[in-house]
Amino acid sequence: MRVFRTCALAAAIGLLGHSASLAQTSSLWNNKQCAVVLTYDDAIDVDLDNAIPALDSLKLRGTFYLIGSSPVVAKRLPEWRRAAQRGHELGNHALMHPCDGSLPGRTFVTPDNDLSKYTVSRAVSEIRANNVLLNAIDGKTARTFAYPCGDLQIGGVKFYDQLQNDFVAARGVMGGLQTAAQVDLTNIDSYMINGQSGDYLIDLVKQAQQSHTLVVFLFHGVGGGHGLNVDLKAHRQLLRYLKAHEKDIWVAPMVEVAEKIKSAQASSAAGKAKG
Questions:
Q1: Each residue of 157-179: pLDDT tens digit?
Q2: Which residues form the signal peptide (predicted)?
Q3: What letter would DSSP give residue 51?
């Protein structure tokens, strides 16, 4: 009987701990099951023509990672400003979108934009210059960064280490669902979407709901406009699912979700230090 009571007590304590953990996670995700971040890279016409109108029609907000030198930024600047005013984040995707041309499959990289030929100081300076441009568009200082091509290093040096005070967080390109404690704010996981179905996109969200985690989508073309593309129908299916389940799913720009995670991680670290 004593063994039974001991086992029952241990099980009860385990359940209480699990419930407390879930409650803490739900609180972090604005008292919802999970968090979803919709990100769109490269500042292309379809962002303004397809993606933003689709999001606005359902009152959802996303993060648009802008390349400062993109002609679509210069030609359509008032539209980007209006998007920011409606709550979309204008994230930093570098001034020139440099990628490491020394890696396999990088024949598209031009000599002028070859990250492997950059110095760290040049990369940092260009990224900061893009922040100045973005601030001139939206008037905001808090934003996130997305690594062009997912490249983190120059000559073995992580250039973002010098930029951590300039951003709330940085988004990478490796897929994965993560709890707040697992998130690396210097390289947040994301699922790069290229041709997957609406059912696939929705299934990722359902997995996040079940595991109470963060899922980040990385889009380029939406209904065309880029070599990496999601079909308009698939994109619309995802947005409709998110809207239909908004009581259970927190959909927000990366900067807002990252700020929440950053605060939670800082609190956890402070608690452990006191302990």
A1: 999 999 999 999 999 999 999 99
A2: 1-23
A3: I
The helix/strand/coil state of 237 is helix
pTM listed for this prediction: 0.90
Q: Supply the CATH number for residue 226's domain.
A: 3.20.20.370
151-160 CB burial, b ≥16 within 10 A, e <16? bbebeeeebb
Say how many C-beta atoms besides its own lie within 10 A of residue 187's C-beta.
Answer: 18
Q: How many CB atoms lie within 10 A of CB 227?
A: 8
Distance CA 22, CA 149 (A): 35
The share of the chain scoring above pLDDT 90, in percent, equals 86
Q: Is residue 20 part of a domain?
A: no
Are the beta carbons of 240 and 206 closer than 8 angstroms? no
The residue written with tokens 């963060």 in the block is 214
Q: Is residue 12 part of a domain?
A: no
Q: Is residue 6 part of a domain?
A: no
Determine the Cα–Cα distance for residues 205 and 199; give it in Å rounded to an integer. Answer: 10
Task: For residue 76, give both structure tokens.
Answer: 């359509």
Question: Is the separation of the CB atoms in 258 and 188 below 8 Å?
Answer: yes
Question: For the segment 186-233, what is each residue's pLDDT rounded down to a tens digit?
Answer: 999 999 999 999 999 999 999 999 999 999 999 999 999 999 999 999
CA 265/CA 183 separation, integer angstroms: 9
Q: Which residues pair with 99 in a beta bridge?
A: 114
For residue 19, being part of any structural domain is answered with no
Answer yes or no: is pLDDT of 112 > 90: yes
CA distances from 35 to 50, 129, 134, 241 (A): 23, 31, 25, 14
Question: Which residue segment(s) compose the domain that 138 sits in?
Answer: 37-274
The domain tally of the chain equals 1
Residue type, 217: F
Sign of CA dihedral 54, 30, 178, 66: positive
